[in-house]
Automatic annotation (TrEMBL):
GO molecular function, one term: cadmium ion transmembrane transporter activity
Bilayer topology term: Multi-pass membrane protein
Assigned keywords, A-Z: Membrane, Transmembrane, Transmembrane helix
Annotated Gene Ontology cellular component terms: plasma membrane
Gene Ontology BP terms: iron ion transmembrane transport
Lineage: Bacteria, Pseudomonadati, Pseudomonadota, Gammaproteobacteria, Oceanospirillales
Matching PANTHER family: METAL ION TRANSPORT PROTEIN (PTHR11706:SF3), SOLUTE CARRIER PROTEIN FAMILY 11 MEMBER (PTHR11706)
Transmembrane segment boundaries: 23-44, 56-78, 98-119, 131-150, 162-181, 201-224, 247-269, 289-310, 345-362, 368-391, 411-432
Identification of the protein by name: Mn2+/Fe2+ NRAMP family transporter
InterPro entries for this protein: NRAMP_fam
Organism of this sequence: Kushneria sinocarnis
């Protein structure tokens, strides 16, 4: 009599464990998306915002994360559910040929600039770990290592090690954020504040706010997600639900990581009068609480994050650029097919994305923090075109039928277009002023 309940519980728990294991195995593009999104942009903008402005700009992060989920979900749904089997870039191109040219030029430029600050940061982190004052040499070494490893059999092992280091650094930030006992009232007030605080330190509040929007909502890295979905085998409407849940998981992870870094900036760096002007300033927080181990863990985690991000962007951006080229020159698509790597230009795009950014690691160029904030702010320039095009094509009844946008998604895309237009104007006025 006493053994039956125990057996029933064991029988019931086994399928539950199997379902949980199956869920973890099916989640994939979202995890890759987190690695593609989480780079120096999140680390720098969140730490600078927290250390310079407390929770005053938290509302910008909240709005940007909501827009990221909506924009990427609409992009993914279009690719899964349109009845012509179009990729997202084919969807843009069928609106007007100029969209193909825009995405080609924009992806080429932003791929160069995004790898610029990531290679610069990776070089500085590696030089610090090796105790040598040769950040340019270390940045070159990172670029060569990425070129030799990406696509090789050994790369998954390297990537796995980098993910573990990233996870360890993230855990350290989470522990530190909890230990710092964040001001929940201030955090809530900042989330619903909708105001721009007075400038503090080197980087003005408006520039930092625009950089957050660009790094999160406006990042062209958001276009990586459909390519990863395709590699996973998610190609039709039947995958829409798991895609949405997978993306929601990715965004929730992003919220936790960004919030932890922000809290560390607001509750540890700011009270100690530390403004984030270099990687060393962020490392100071972990060193204060965890000593040399915290310092080492931070630099290993930063290097792992940047190395993985450079690898991811060097892999994904050439696919995006080649796809755009095929929209401009349909004859190349007919000649080389749908496998982007078969087009010889794909390799040249990889070389361009990986090695030309090294010029930004030369002496006399902007420092890592300034370059990161500036490049992510520039992301905002392309978002109005992207959001407006997405608004039009995601409402095409002939292509999407019942999978068209609902009223909230249309309202959000309209808001994103207006917000980014305003941000672009304010950024231009700030730079000219």
């Amino acid at each position: 009599m006493t053994t039956r309940p125990h057996q029933a519980t064991g029988t019931a728990s086994a399928p539950a464990r199997q379902r949980f294991g199956q869920l973890l195995r099916t989640l994939g593009p979202g995890i890759v998306a987190v690695l593609a999104w989480l780079g120096a942009g999140d680390l720098i903008t969140s730490s600078v915002s927290g250390s310079n402005y407390g929770y005053g700009l938290m509302w910008v992060l909240a709005v940007s994360l909501l827009l990221r989920f909506l924009i990427v979900n609409i992009i993914a749904r279009f690719q899964l559910c349109n009845n012509q089997g179009m990729t997202i870039l084919e969807g843009y191109a069928q609106l007007h040929p100029l969209f193909g040219w825009f995405m080609f030029i924009y992806a080429l430029l932003m791929g160069h600039l995004m790898n610029a600050y990531m290679l610069k940061g990776a070089g500085e982190a590696l030089a610090t770990l090796l105790h040598i004052n040769q950040p340019l040499l270390c940045a070159c070494a990172v670029a060569v290592a990425v070129w030799l490893l990406v696509g090789r059999n050994v790369y998954p092992v390297i990537e796995g090690a980098m993910k573990l280091l990233l996870a360890a650094m993230t855990l350290a930030f989470l522990i530190l954020a909890i230990m710092s006992t964040p001001d929940m009232g201030g955090l809530l007030a900042g989330t619903v504040g909708f105001s721009i605080p007075a400038d503090t330190g080197v980087h003005g509040a408006l520039l930092v706010a625009v950089s957050i929007i660009g790094a999160v909502a406006g990042s062209i890295a958001n276009f990586v997600h459909p390519y990863v979905m395709k590699e996973k085998g998610w190609t039709g409407p039947e995958h829409k639900r798991i895609q949405r849940n997978d993306l929601l998981f990715a965004v929730l992870v992003g919220i936790v990581i960004n919030l932890a870094i922000w809290v560390v900036g607001a509750e540890i760096l700011r009270p100690n009068g530390i403004e984030v002007n270099s990687i060393d300033d962020i490392a100071a927080a972990l060193e204060m609480y965890f000593g040399t181990f915290g310092w080492l863990l931070f630099y290993l985690g930063v290097f792992a994050t940047l190395f993985a991000s450079v690898s991811g962007k060097t892999t994904a951006f050439p696919m995006l650029i080649t796809d755009a080229l095929h929209r401009i020159r349909p004859g190349r698509r007919e000649r080389y097919g749908r496998v982007f790597r078969d087009d010889p230009m794909h390799k040249w795009f990889m070389l361009f994305i990986l090695f030309t950014p090294l010029i930004w690691s030369l002496p006399g160029t902007p420092n890592f923090v300034t370059l990161t904030i500036g490049v992510n702010a520039l992301n905002i320039v392309g978002l109005p075109v992207i959001a407006l095009g997405l608004l039009i094509m995601s409402n095409q009844k002939g292509l999407l039928g019942r999978y068209r946008n609902n009223w909230f998604e249309n309202l959000a895309l309209g808001f994103a277009t207006l917000l980014t237009l305003w941000s672009a104007v304010q950024l231009a006025r700030s730079l000219l002023g």
